[in-house]
Amino acid sequence: MYQFDWSSIPGALPYLAQGMLLTLQITCTAVAVGVVFGTLIALARLSPNALLSNLAALYVNGFRSVPLVMVLLWFYILVPGLIQALFHHPPLDIRLLSAFIAFSLFEASYYAEIIRAGIQSVSHGQVSAGLALGMSRRETMRLIILPQAFRRMVPLLLTQAIILFQDTSLVYVIGLAEFFGVAYRTGNRDGTLVELLLFAGAVYFVICFTASTIVRQLQKRICV
Amino acid sequence: MISISNVCKWYGDFQVLCECTTKVEKGEVVVVCGPSGSGKSTLIKCVNGLEPFQKGEIQVENVSVGNRRTKLSLLRARVGMVFQHFELFPHLSVIQNLTIAQTRVLKRTGREATDKALKLLEMVGLQDHAQKHPAQLSGGQQQRVAIARALAMDPIAMLFDEPTSALDPEMIKEVLDVMVRLAHEGITMMVVTHEMGFARQVANRVIFMDHGKIVEDRPTIDFFKTPGTERAQQFLSKILAH
């Protein structure tokens, strides 16, 4: 019978908390950049300009067709190499930066699709009404269409943020000390991997389950 | 005021408008009717450039709508439009619906815009609903707000695209009453509608369309007394039957 040994967890709590902080930083950055950049890509995709819309489609389909962990590794390996080759700069530790950038760009492609669907769910008559009042296309989009689209999208955007929060655990492949990485390494070091991973899993579960419950409540309120 | 000459429009191979020519003078009320799919809504949407057209010309106060160099937003700010499905902005309150274009497009101050909006809401009998959101109003009330919203821009002409078609029967009257009042005030109006009672009461002319063509364009009295074409006769007998 396996004997659980939880003794290494209390001592690791400060490190785990720091890891959680980094996890949240990556999540928040990727959500913020992803929503802003994703909105721009969604607008480009819906633009009548064929070049713009094709470029946006390429971006979205490209990022959505490769695993996130590969994007992370590419950034981790490519970008420092590139900087070194171009500027003859000594190797930099840009793991953190590459994690931020990779997640932001990756999430932007997912948010772009959610936002595009949101924009398209607002009836075309609303565009006509805005234009008929003398507003420009840009004003109509900004003042009439996007506010309605975002209101409808909030639950989806939050759900995507919860998925992203879990996906940040992937940065352990580039050796960053986010929550999962800290748990994994502490467990390895103390020979209590099973306990640490169970604990980490429980923390992820509590946070994500609470968040999705809140999203569900929100969804109900928006629907009314 | 509005002059439409030889306007043609195609959706792919399908011709929706065919050599349409007519005029609306200042202060005139013109009703456009015809069976569904006859192109009447498309025609009225061409007037403020919401629908592009491939051939012909439309001028509104000597501004050419089809001309690429025309700033359509400037023209549209001066021509009010009321839609079949109201198209109020659901995320804004009634008063904000009336002020947003005034402040953004006409650069009125918030105070001026609000004063104007309240005056117009009073005119359509909805001053008590200023702070509500559109979803809290009935269809008839929403359409009256939409009319007030268009009027808030001090338009030189008003376009109505089947303003009562989406309404329950008991709400049609409250909207038509407002429109009759506008007609009596001398506002230039082009109205796509099946409401023949309204046409009889206030229209100077009736245009009858079928298959993208203007088949009849005659003074109201003549149109109802002796429709010139068999198609218009059929149409009238069908909708006046009940």
Molecular structure report:
The complex is a heterodimer of chains A (224) and B (242). Chain A has 224 residues and is mainly α. Chain A has helices at residues 8-46, 50-64, 68-87, 95-121, 124-132, 137-167, 179-190, 193-223. The mean pLDDT of chain A is 89. In chain B, strand 9 and strand 10 (213-219) form a beta hairpin. The model of chain B has no long low-confidence stretch (mean pLDDT 93). The relative contact order of chain B is 0.17. Chain B contains nine helices and ten strands. Chain B has 242 residues and is of the alpha/beta class. In chain B, helix 3 (94-104) packs parallel to helix 5. Chain B has helices spanning 40-47, 72-78, 94-104, 110-123, 139-151, 169-184, 196-202, 220-225, 230-240, and strands at 2-11, 14-24, 29-33, 55-60, 63-64, 79-82, 157-161, 189-192, 205-210, 213-219. In chain B, the strands form two sheets. In chain B, strands 6-7-8-3-9-10 form a six-stranded mixed beta sheet, sandwiched between helices. In chain B, strands 2-1-4-5 form a four-stranded antiparallel beta sheet, covered by helices on one side. Chain B is 38% helix and 25% strand.
Main β-sheet of chain B: number of strands, strand sense, barrel status?
A: 6 strands, mixed
Helix amount of chain B:
25-40%
Strand/helix succession of chain A: HHHHHHHH
Class of secondary structure makeup of chain A: mainly alpha
The number of helices of chain B is: 9
What is the spatial order of strands in the main beta sheet of chain B?
A: 6-7-8-3-9-10
H and E order of chain B: EEEHEEHEHHHEHEHEEHH
Strand tally of chain B is 10
Ranges of chain A where pLDDT stays below 50 over 5 or more residues in a row are none
Please tell me the overall pLDDT of chain A: 89
Distance between the termini of chain B: 36 Å
Q: What is the percent of helical residues of chain A?
A: over 70%
Radius of gyration of chain B: 18 Å
Main beta-sheet strand count, sense and barrel state of chain A: none
